[in-house]
Amino acid sequence: MSTETIAEDRVVIPGAPDIPGLTFRSFRGEDDFPGMVEVLHAASAADKQDDARTVDDIARSYRNLKNSDAARDIVMVDLNGEMVAYKRVEWLQEEATGTYVYNHFGFMKPEVRGKGLGRALFRHSENRLREIAADHPADAPKFFATGVNTGQEGLRDLIESEGYTPVRVFYEMVRPDLENIPDMPLPEGLDVRPVRPEDYRAIWEAEVEAFKDHWGEATADEVDYQRWLNEPMFQPELWQVAWEGDQVAGMVRNFISEPENEKYGRKRGYVENISVRRAYRKRGLARALIALSFLMHKERGMTEGALGVDSENPTGALHVYRAMGFEIARNYTEYRKPLV
User: Fold this and answer.
1) Long-range CB pairs of 42-48, under 8 A, 24+ apart, other chains included
2) Tens of pLDDT along 257-315?
3) Percent of the chain having pLDDT more than 90?
4) Of 51, 52, 276, 318, whose CB count within 10 A is highest?
5) Residue 99's domain spans which residues?
6) What does the pLDDT average to over 3-18?
7) Per-residue model confidence as pLDDT tens digits over 220-240
8) Does residue 293 belong to any structural domain of this protein?
9) Mean pLDDT for the chain?
10) Do both 12 and 124 map to the same domain?
11) Final residue belonging to a domain, choices 143, 163, 183
12) 145: exposed, middle or buried (Cβ count in 10 Å: 0-12, 13-18, 19+)
């Protein structure tokens, strides 16, 4: 990269700490992915989180960003030429309420924490989001949003000191073994069959429909479909999808992260992205698909299951998951602040 290009991609962060060798710049595309992975792994280790994302995972995630301009909405932080942090902003509009939600988040290596860098980046993100919000209807409800996991107490203190309040809690749940799997037959008239590429669109549309009544869901479009196809853990061969003829009734979009299992010395299968369309609810379909997922994971050598859930899920999912043997392991709290 030329000296001119390096100079042009410099970013000014007001209030940044005076640390020798600390510089801020814009995102440089795939050349930044290895450094981002290093930052993610260092940050997760410091915060006692699980993160085994690879360069390919990051590439897939960034392939179809939505409502996030890579040139303006990402800031990379280098220390003597080595990436030590990065942050990104994005926004969405909730379909049910029309509320605009302006998200910001970042990751930071432990050696540059506690020096005021996080707060400077935090406020820079808010300023960028205010610029974005200026193009949206003035009378629409608008909120900044960010979040914190169990164990990230320093980040929690920063968020709360900046005027944010908790609005929703999400649980990570784990089933510590895959023994004593209950016999849960599918409701009459439904069957599960292998997923084919020609089924992808119908499955995605059914998932979007099923999640419409969930908190914070945004309007979905073709960009979302392409993002869905490029999810890092897109493993349709593991999915359990129930059909009634040519209609999707519900699904569990399972996946296994081999890098994560290797890194943390476990055999975990994720029983994730569980959804049932309204016409098929209250018939035991979710439990039946979860039981099939347990059997599938066990056949592949997994010894535990995990999933994430909204603690206030309107369909009673938390009760179902507890009944299927899942236990709360940790939580993620979303915080919001009115944008004024």
Assistant:
1) 42/109, 42/110, 43/107, 43/108, 43/109, 43/110, 46/109, 46/110, 46/113, 47/149, 47/151, 47/152, 47/155, 48/151
2) 999 999 999 999 999 999 999 999 999 999 999 999 999 999 999 999 999 999 998 88
3) 94
4) 276
5) 3-163
6) 78
7) 999 999 999 999 999 999 999
8) yes
9) 95
10) yes
11) 163
12) buried
In degrees, rounded to 5, the angle at the alpha carbon of residue 277 between the alpha carbons of residues 271 and 280 is: 100
205 to 37, 212, 340: CA distances (angstroms): 32, 11, 35
pLDDT of the residue at 316: 87
Please report the pLDDT score of residue 315 as a whole number.
81
Q: Is residue 339 part of a domain?
A: no
Work out the number of other CB atoms within 10 angstroms of the CB of residue 103: 20
- Number of domain units in the chain: 2
Report how far residue 32's alpha carbon sits from residue 63's, in angstroms, rounded to the nearest whole number: 13
Question: Which single residue is written with the structure tokens 């569990």?
Answer: 252
Chain CA centroid to CA 192, Å: 27
Determine the Cα–Cα distance for residues 162 and 141; give it in Å rounded to an integer.
Answer: 20
Task: Return the pLDDT at 213.
Answer: 82
Average pLDDT of the residues in 31-49: 97
CATH code (residue 227): 3.40.630.30
Do residues 117 and 178 share a domain?
A: no
* pLDDT score recorded for residue 37: 98
Asked if residue 2 has pLDDT above 60, the reply is no
Q: Is the same domain home to 14 and 135?
A: yes
Which residue in the block uniquely carries the two structure tokens 């439990």?
287
301 & 211 share domain: yes
340 domain-assigned: no
Q: Are residues 92 and 181 in the same domain?
A: no
**Long-range CB pairs of 88-92, under 8 A, 24+ apart, other chains included:** 89/125, 89/128, 89/129, 89/132, 90/65, 90/66, 91/67, 91/129, 91/132, 91/133, 92/66, 92/67, 92/218
- Cα separation, 251 vs 275, in Å, equals 6
Residue ending a domain, among 145, 163, 181, is 163
